[in-house]
Amino acid sequence: MNPAKTDLAEQITSSDRRALARAITLIESTRAEHREQAEALLQELLPNTGQSIRIGITGVPGVGKSTFIEAFGLHAIEMGKRVAVLAIDPSSPRTGGSILGDKTRMEELGRHKNAYIRPTPSGGTLGGVARRTREAMLACEAAGFDVIIVETVGVGQSETTVAEMVDMFLLLLVPGGGDELQGIKKGIVELADLIIVNKADGDLEKAAERARREYANALGLLRPSSPEWPPEVTKCSALNRDGIGAVWATIERYREIMAKSGGIGRRRAEQAKAWMWNEVSDTLMNRLRTDPKVRRRVGELEEKVASGVQTPGKAAQELLTLFLSGS
Amino acid sequence: MNPAKTDLAEQITSSDRRALARAITLIESTRAEHREQAEALLQELLPNTGQSIRIGITGVPGVGKSTFIEAFGLHAIEMGKRVAVLAIDPSSPRTGGSILGDKTRMEELGRHKNAYIRPTPSGGTLGGVARRTREAMLACEAAGFDVIIVETVGVGQSETTVAEMVDMFLLLLVPGGGDELQGIKKGIVELADLIIVNKADGDLEKAAERARREYANALGLLRPSSPEWPPEVTKCSALNRDGIGAVWATIERYREIMAKSGGIGRRRAEQAKAWMWNEVSDTLMNRLRTDPKVRRRVGELEEKVASGVQTPGKAAQELLTLFLSGS
Questions:
Q1: What is the DSSP letter of A229?
Q2: Using H for helix, E for strand and C for coil, what is the string for B251-282?
Q3: Among A108, A317, B103, B143, which is most buried by a count of CB atoms within 10 Å?
Q4: B179–A220: do the CB atoms touch at under 8 Å?
Q5: Complex ipTM above 0.85?
Q6: Measured between alpha carbons, how far is B58 from B311 in angstroms, rounded to an integer?
Q7: CA–CA dist A131, A164 (Å, integer)
């Protein structure tokens, strides 16, 4: 017995791209009234969400991520899909250009009527950016996109955050003599459901195959995160659009296996609950950190704790008392 | 201008073992008045803490962890050290016996006057157990123990928690044909500063050397957490007390390098600040979760969020409003 949809919700579910863009702008706004409107809109859209495959992609700069996403996105479109690309990059402002900011990136994909590319919102904490991306993902699903790609670079905790909002997590690497993982943050490899060795072309073709085998061996030493899907390693040349079909086929196979086992449904239910608790915890801690009484005291307490003249427990107690005592 | 020490603090800093045991019992108590006394005591002891090397050890059951700790502890005592052993095992009650509960474990070490073994406190959340262990560690340092071992099994997040409270993290493994890491949770390998292949004796001697080489290769693919210390792999036979001296020497070398670079000091300052914020966040979230108004509502909200009929954001907002509205 849902109430009649608002105009904006109606337009989004009729795949109106400008309505979608307006919705995401609303989602990204930090103004309290916008936040409330965004929450209401998402609640309206919720029944129309969830039908996409949510794919996270990470890789350090230079690995060919945009070339890959362009090739991959166009392939998915050829397969009859509609593709949305979002990004999480809390470190760089929108104008920084390090991710999705460069307008020449993914030019062909960006122009396609069945693709929607949204640059990363500027600034804010990782928690804030993550929320906006999760919400933008729901809006894209409501607008009928059936492949959602969330892109990130190896900065801070952003890969973990992305892995926690998608159905499948892809790690893009380049061949480079056995120490290719040197630039990758610890723990990222273990988040991957699929490792893709890119630049398997020209001079690097043999090295790419060697790297693929090495990673496959190294992965064999780790316990898979899903019992029904041990992580795989494949190679491709995004530049020559070679091996992209195989990546797509692997994703389809993953989706089939995980749908059959109920793995994706379970993963999403857990993600949604964790998201709720993260929101609770982030909002609460944010209120504490921005509390004027806390702000006046926190620098000195941190210093005392770091230099070992005050116990962390006593300092924490003081901060809590300041926060909960009211204004 | 510290006030005169209380009797208990005085006794602890004079290495009185019964006073130390009383202090840890106080630390483990959940009663509010005890908590306050414990905080005050720790604040008193703080100037006498920090001089030990804090070592975390993990490994799945069957890897020979207690045999190793016994051999290692006795070796450290031979080197003139005083050794305390603590444990984090949030999953098992004290009587469960899965860790440090079995009185026949570490018999020789347990009887030694320069060793102190404290079984894991029963029950509670990982956060709670972690706090008590961190505090017990400080009490042991104040009592003059200069090697503190914190033991854990591969359950939940406990290894990460231990790694975040020690100077150096050791992972114990057994040889077993290349898939030894199968039983180890993802991410644990990457926490290790030193991997030790145990049971390098009898029939397993060759397999141990093979495993050592394999791990060394696999580690080469990962970026070290400290630039000045790429993780190492060594082997030993705790049973024959063979290779234990080499482990000790590696720890000394680690300590020297990290002391010279200031790495240990930086790590501890960061750990102390993170501990303070964890306390703040844990306590705040604990108050929210136990709030009667929140408790009446949370089950239904979680279910709605998991089944996709309510957005996580709206559910979070409702919980926060309930909590912050006062009683």
A1: B
A2: HHHHHHHHHHCCHHHHHHHHHHHHHHHHHHHH
A3: B143
A4: yes
A5: no
A6: 39
A7: 12
Specify the 3-state DSSP secondary structure of B233: strand
Are A95 and A101 in contact by the 8 Å Cβ rule? The answer is yes
Contacts of B315 in chain A (CB under 8 A): 276
Q: What are φ and ψ of residue A201, in 5° steps?
A: -150, 165
Place of tokens 């945009």: A66
Q: pLDDT digit string (tens) for B120-174?
A: 765 667 777 888 899 999 999 999 999 999 998 765 678 888 999 999 999 998 8
| CA nearest neighbour of B163 among B143, B139, B134, B183 | B134
The pLDDT tens digits for A70-129 are: 999 999 999 999 999 998 765 544 333 344 445 457 889 989 999 999 877 656 677 778
- Specify the DSSP class assigned to residue B52: S
In whole angstroms, what is the distance from residue A78 CA to residue A112 CA? 11
- DSSP letter at B202? G
Which residues from A are below 8 Å from B317, CB to CB?
Answer: 39, 279
B51 contacts chain A (CB < 8 A) = no
CA B315 vs. chain centroid, Å, equals 35
CA distance A166 to A85: 13
**């024959």: which residue's tokens?**
B240
Of A42, A301, A308, the CB nearest to B46: A308
Instruction: Say how many C-beta atoms besides its own lie within 10 A of residue A181's C-beta.
Output: 22
Beta strands in B60-158 (DSSP E): 83-88, 115-117, 147-152
How many angstroms separate the CA atoms of B32 and B26, rounded? 11
